[in-house]
Amino acid sequence: MTLNTGVNAAVRAVYPTYPTTLLQRTLEKAWFCQFCIGILICVNNGACFTFGIFSPYMKRGAFRYTQSQIDVVSTVGVLLSYFSMPTGFLFDRRGPAATLLAGTILNVTGWVGMYFIFKDMEHPLLSNSVVVMAFFFGLSQFSASFYETGSVLTNLKSFSCYQGRVILIQKTFMGLGSSLVAQIYVAFFEKTFSGIAPFFAFLFLYSAVAGTLAVLYLRLPTPETRCVGLNVEDAETKARGGGEPRMFRTPFNVGTAILCVGVAFVLVTTLVENFVTLTAAMRAWIGAATVLLCMSFTSMIFTTPSYEVNRQRGERAGAGREAVELDGMPSRATTTTVTADWTATELEEGDRSQCVVEDLALCTETSTAGVASPVQLKSFDNDTAVAKGTVHPHGAVAHTSGSPPPSPTAADVVNNAPASDEERPDNPFALHLNDESLWVNVRHREVWLLWFVCFGAWSAMTVVSSNSSQIYQALAYDSFSLTVNTVFVSIYGVASAVGRIIVGCLHPRLARHRMPISVLLPLAPLLNIVGLPMFLLSPSRMLFIPFFVVGLGVGFSWGTTVLVITSLFADHNCGKHYSFLYTAGMLSPLIFNMALFGPVYDHYGERQGHVGGGSCEGVVCIAAPMIVCTAVNVIAAPLAYMFIKRTTARRGIVYTA
Fold it and tell me: Which of 140, 304, 332, 399 is the most exposed place for a label (fewest CB within 10 A)?
């Protein structure tokens, strides 16, 4: 059986396809297999943010935690989930495999510990100590940054021509992951088991399987595995002025459609769960549909077209590897051949729109003879840029000196070819990719402006996500329901997913209009300014509205921030700066959970006579952290605008003397 996929006729004219069987391995299918494993990791990462599901169990059995004690556990978890400086340095130095392996070990260990703590709630096997609870929960949360960095940054580089779609699908699923895990809990665990331990057993088993697959298969592109149309810009896209390539639009459209169906499914399901009492059959259908939804992303693998240009490159790379195996050690000629293969492909894709195709054999012969043509000299310049990690995602080589990008010289224009559109002075995407050290950058205001914007957005996430059950209990004290509590966790995740979807959809449109992705930064604090006060005004049955608004802002923040980092910093400099922003998330629980939410909640609970119960009734229990967090976001919104103005005016994070 052959697989025929719909490919745009204009693309087929330049890049002919070839038929494949359903299970035949191709370079394109291998990359989309990696993408699907990244989605599994996103669901796993989302499970780290379901604290609201099991925090009510901390007030039962032998635990009987106060709100302050619960906040200690959640704060330790949040702090460690944001403590990602080791993650950034590990990723920059060792790559995704080591990063994902560390995350998997941490995550599995954490969930196994939580399982043994809650296995017997009256006589906990590992004691009912807050310290023990915080330790194992913290390990599971510490893995979150390893999962995100190891999967999202890897696929942003592996699918550099489709970065908007990566954010749209993978980053959205990371936000939707908590909602999907919540649906699985409602379907298979809430009424089936009396305790929460079986749920933790599911989490550590899933983490072990998904993490192992990620360690084995998630890799960055190499000269041998680069794929035209995915991480090498194709000529057809370049000829029409950039934007999203058409070569792999079909599988990404399939993934986007599945994602939209998933968001709609979770949204409708959570609303039904909010107002309808679920039967056992309804729960089973919800669980089965959730599992099938996650598995359906594998259809992206089987709908991807296979192109001759990538098959030919794969064969040439395979021949190079065979030569190395026969000779034992790679010769200079063999190494040059592989390098020339990648170089010629880059040149071919850059010049194909001008009907200039370089002969690979000629390039190899010339390099072996030690005579370099003008075209080859430019190729070596491009290779150096690739090796330094300074190739712009849209194909332009960005400058990484301490000054703004210089004007093109005569050496940059071979055979009188016009300068590429990305390099023109009027293009705001011709950015200076910052390659300064973290120590240099933290001594300038640009990084701190971005840091405070993240602090405002992520503080709202801390207040709402880690205290969702307490917020709901305070505002619906006499009608508290575990099912509805799970619904609010789910609706928050859906909203976060919607925000990331919008960012992913807007990214290619902003690129076509030559607008930087940073223009979306103010949306998160603005949504928080609207959503946070709504918790103080909404009746209990309408709480899904503020949960949705704040979740939407969080989705905008997470979707935008990672794209801002990859658009402003050189590839080898992204991990550590992205991790530095996480210190904003580390500070937020110390202020909003430990110093505000927990003490205020317990104070008013004791005044109301709820001593030792960890409960509180009324808006007064949550007013202080909501008001303070709103004020922080009021400050963050204009700072986001200031960041946009400075980076667009200087075309990047550039420091003038």
Answer: 332
Q: Which domains does the chain have, with CATH numbers?
A: 23-305+437-649 (1.20.1250.20)
| Rounded Cα distance, 643 and 639, in Å | 6
pLDDT tens profile 164-211: 788 778 877 777 787 888 889 988 988 888 888 999 999 999 999 999
- Rounded-to-integer distance, Cα 531 and Cα 528, Å: 5
Q: Is the dihedral of CA 502, 504, 509, 515 positive or negative?
A: positive
- Residue 655, pLDDT score: 65
d(CA 621, CA 372): 74
Q: Which token pair is 16?
A: 């002919």
Lowest mean pLDDT among 139-148, 257-266, 374-383, 577-586: 374-383
Residue 482 CA neighbour count, 13 Å, CB half: 16
Q: What is the rounded average pLDDT of the residues 498-504? A: 84
Q: pLDDT digit string (tens) for 222-264?
A: 888 888 888 888 887 777 776 778 889 899 999 999 988 988 8
Take residue 524 and report the two structure tokens written for it: 């998160």
C-alpha 95/C-alpha 379 separation (Å) is 26
Tokens in use for 657? 């003397």
pLDDT on residue 186: 87
User: Taking the model in full, what pTM does it have?
Assistant: 0.68
Scanning 169-222, the segments in alpha helix (DSSP H) are 172-188, 197-217
The three-state secondary structure class of 592 is helix
Lookup: tokens for 575? 């991990």
Q: Please list, in sequence order, all residues whose beta carbon lies within 8 angstroms of the beta carbon of residue 405, skipping any fewer than 6 positions away.
A: 398, 399, 430, 432, 651
> Taking the mean position of all CA atoms in its chain, how far away is CA 91?
14
Q: Which residues contact 463 (CB under 8 A, 6 or more apart)?
A: 532, 592, 593, 597, 625, 626, 629
> Minimal CA–CA distance to 647: which of 447, 425, 436, 393?
447
- Residues whose CB is less than 8 angstroms from the CB of residue 322 and which lie 6 or more positions away in sequence, other chains included: none
Confidence at residue 425, expressed as pLDDT on a 0 to 100 scale: 38
Pair 504, 173: CB distance under 8 Å: no
pLDDT tens-place string over residues 295-352? 999 999 999 988 888 886 655 555 544 443 434 444 444 444 444 454 444 445 444 4
Q: CA–CA separation, 171 vs 188, rounded Å?
A: 26
Judge whether 418 and 443 are in contact, CB under 8 Å: no
Tokens of 264: 């709609």
Strand partners, 391: 397
Give the residue from 114, 97, 102, 374 showing the smallest Cα distance to 213: 97
CA dihedral 617, 620, 625, 627 (to 10 degrees): 140
Tokens of 198: 């079986």
Token pair for residue 604? Answer: 């008013």
What are the DSSP calls for 70-90, one per residue?
Answer: HHHHHHHHHHHHH--HHHHHH
438-445: long-range contacts, CB 8 A cutoff, minimum separation 24: 438/576, 438/577, 438/580, 441/577, 441/653, 442/580, 444/653, 444/655, 445/646
Residues 249 and 305 sit within 8 Å (Cβ to Cβ): no
**3-state DSSP call for residue 612?**
coil
SS (H, E, C) 380-447: HHHHHHHHHCCECCCCCECCCCCCCCCCCCHHHCHHHCCCCHHHCCCCCCCCECECCCHHHHCCCHHH
Residues in the chain: 657
